[in-house]
Amino acid sequence: MAISSTDDFQTTIHKSYDKMSELKAFDDTKAGVKGLVDAGITEVPQIFVLPPKDRPESSDTCETQFIFPVIDLEGIAKDPIKHKEIVDKVRDASETWGFFQVVNHGIPVSVLEEMLQGTRKFFEQDIEVKNQYYTRDITKKVVHSCNFDLYSPSVPAANWRDTLFCIMAPNPPSPEEFPTACREILMEFSDHIMKLGKSVFELLSEGLGLNPSHLNDIGCAEGLVVLGHYYPACPQPELTMGTSKHSDSSFITMLLQDHIGGLQVLHQNQWIDVPPMPGAIVVNIGDLLQALISNDKYISVEHRVLTNKLSSRISVACFFGTYPLASSNLYGPITELLSEDNPPKYRVTTVNDYASYYRKKGLDGTSALLHYKI
């Protein structure tokens, strides 16, 4: 599965290279990228090698010093002036960045640290224990896999990342179905994240000039899926990506990242590092909030994750949305935000339809929103 040299990809793919067979052989190991690293590989297998134009080294790098928005939530419930200031900051960040970090959000640092440790413990345990969760069956509520879009023909290369997928709301599995390595902390952390998520939706609602409960009332916080990501150290980080450029399919995503770094946001056509901050939670606007709710007032910004040679990276991404509920609710730009000068830019659809299209398309470098533009 190893490539013989970088030049092989730059000129032409070997006739002997059968991508689908390579993908299946890798997937059948049920060991993920972690399994490759444990096997001692020194070169990135061909299925992970990006075309030269898509590699991180060929991207626009940030030459301007941007200050990534950090919003302090302390005192928000006690001081009306502070509350208004925070709403203004959330609105501004959501309109210009599509991303911000929150601190003093009420989740104990001990819970955050334990969640990161529990996620690492899952991925670094014996493969025989992890294997029982490895599947491509998307009806399962707890899934260990490598690349949800591994077999998508439009995706140029697999990402250097393993994932533990857990549905946490509204119908989570029984506690016994969660991996023992992170069972208790996963449930505790998710309770905290759900509470924080609802609070952030209130701020986002106010930022749109709506009643604070509006986004929660229409079901934006109904569903919660928590993904633990493991990015192993990579022998050739210049050839591949931890997560390819994409925007999220959620209403919002809340992310806990460790101290390693690697997350980047595309801001003003430049890739900006999202600095790891102890105790901080990253919030980013998802496609559903940009298109099906705010009619492009808030923006769902593209982001990516770089790999590195030195150490593995852990993150925990919490996606708020109604998927995978069997919901027939129709979503479209909120009527109160529309006018003759601001007509709807997207057609009405269900979250299930959007999520299905997003999964089928995969992380191919294009926005799924284009499919729903009027």
From TrEMBL:
Signal peptide: none
Domain called Fe2OG dioxygenase: residue spans: 222-323
Entry's Gene Ontology BP terms: coumarin biosynthetic process; response to molecule of fungal origin
Record bears the keyword Protein transport: no
Keywords: Iron, Metal-binding, Oxidoreductase, Vitamin C
Superkingdom in the source lineage: Eukaryota
Keyword NADP: no
A GO molecular-function descriptor: 2-oxoglutarate-dependent dioxygenase activity
Name used for this protein in its record: Fe2OG dioxygenase domain-containing protein
Organismal lineage: Eukaryota, Viridiplantae, Streptophyta, Embryophyta, Tracheophyta
